[in-house]
């Protein structure tokens, strides 16, 4: 097992995880769940396909669970609150908590009425295992075409899955426990986490201004997801709902 093969698997996994993180934050989170920006229809289909083959998640379920998190942050109703369920349960069990909330028909009825399933969902995108199988096959074939043995692609897929799950868990666990709190809410900002998650680590800012497409609100904060949004806006592929940041009124 030459070290170059291992390194190739790690690099490939990191690239796939970053692509998945970028589409998660820009499409699933900022656009679909919060309507902070509108993506050009030409970008929506590729975004749906990327989410399908890199995560197997259903966008309308992700949006519903996430909207419920905002509506009931750190209460018994919150699908993944470290304050209620404990830090490690959310950090390591985030995907299971997400699934449990997504399976409750009430979650979708209440929080995703505007996101009905379409034909493409019913035929393909609702089938998580099919999407993941396509994604793993692409990764294995690409790595093989680049001259690496087949196992490198499989290892990269496994590392990506672990990386994506841990980072998603960290946004919900670390992002409600460790970090700075410039605004009055229970979420926290973590600059390192923000770098690893295309800006999602600026979670205290996000809870303060959920309809803002930009998460970096102070000097020195880095939000790669916002850079991507700006590139898309410059290419006429996205429209931001409001340029000025609207802070949520604290009760
Ligand atoms: Zn949160
Ligand atoms: Zn949000």
Q: What can you tell me about this protein's structure?
A:
The structure is a single chain. Helix content is 63%, strand content 2%. By secondary structure, it is mainly α. It has one domain (3-240). It has a two-stranded antiparallel sheet. Helix 1 packs across helix 3. The longest helix has 31 residues, at 3-33. The site of one zinc ion has 7 residues, from helix 11.
Architecture blueprint of SSEs:
Elements: H1 3-33, E1 37-39, H2 41-55, H3 59-71, H4 82-85, H5 87-103, H6 105-111, H7 119-125, H8 128-145, H9 150-173, H10 191-196, H11 203-208, H12 224-234, E2 238-240
Antiparallel strand pairs: 1-2
The structure holds zinc ion (2 copies).
One zinc ion (ZN) binds at residues 29, 33-34, 66, 70, 206, 210.
What distinguishing features does this structure have?
251 residues, binds zinc ion, mainly alpha, two-stranded antiparallel ribbon
